[in-house]
Amino acid sequence: MKRYIIFLLFCALPLAIMASPENYTVVIDAGHGGKDPGALGRDGCEKEINLKVALALGDLITKNCPNVRVVYTRTSDQYVTLYERAKIANKENGDLFICIHTNASRSSSAMGTETYVLGLAKSDANFEVAKRENSVILLEEGYKEKYQGFDPASPESYIMFEFMQASFFDQSVLIADYVQKEFAKNNRIDRGVRQEIFLVLHQTKMPSVLIELGFISNREEERFLLSAEGQQKMAQSIFSAFERYKHEYDKRTYTQQTAIKPITIDITIAAVEETPTAKQADEIVYKVQIFSTNKKLKPTDAAFKGWKECSFYEETGLIKYTYGATSNYNEIVALKKKVNKDFKDAFIVAFVNGKKIAVGEARKLQQSKK
Length: 370
Known about the structure:
By secondary structure, this protein is α/β, with parallel strands linked by helices. The chain folds into 2 domains: 18-250, Zn-dependent exopeptidases (Aminopeptidase); 276-368, Sporulation related repeat (Alpha-Beta Plaits). The chain has 12 helices and 11 strands. It has a 6-stranded mixed β-sheet with strand order 2-1-3-6-4-5, sandwiched between helices. It has a 5-stranded antiparallel β-sheet with strand order 8-9-7-10-11.
């Protein structure tokens, strides 16, 4: 009995340390640069706006979030390929990738902000944005080989990306939604969260969003985005969204783990049969959620990275895949540790009689039965 208790005490400490919210890295990507000016307005060009907002955002994060490391794909007017941008993010083990762009349209009346996550084309308008942003690969030498024959102007080229980044879809949508809500608070026109195939998002191995700050082709928005006040407001909105998202990240990956306390269990008492009551009849099951997507996947899909016997549940219009199932909280924590090797953003979810509840609530319910 004493041996068993000592083992629990030993395990609880490293789990709390491993789950620390420190060592979090956000990669900020200022779109275009150098020989690639991006969209052009009457008085300025996209690459300048993107860089100034990116640097202002990074400065806000550095000053207000001491435990967050900021990495930039560029800090000056230099040309960086899409491939190199994603490579930087992956090499630095980024936890979040924020790509900043400025929109343009044939119509000078088009206005507003929109934030993209990786997904299939949903409209002709989305596709036009994707074609424009992806077309920068044409400036790269050997782009056909590097991007496996991808043609940014061909709809057929986009089919291959149908299930890419499925494991980060849920998190990407979450921060994208926060970004748009913060823009709306600052009286910017909200054009919503959208899905499209952007090569720079496809190549990154982390939750990723591409933000269109506004339309440089609109005279009013161009003036706003070229002004120091406008750039600071946009950076502040994105920062506020990041803070909120980071808080959710910390709750999922840290708070639940640090709450673990060694539990002394008298095995002989646990084995005694009792007359079932309404509370005891509640079946509590913990699972590890590995990713979410908007489509059902075959068990052999590459998105599962070889993990078999995954199950799923549906919530908020998404299909959320899980691995494992146990009523023992310590077991699910150990399983999550293994799963995190392939799905670093995986987290624990709980169900009572098949209905999802907060993990903390499930823990309290189990404690009340003892």
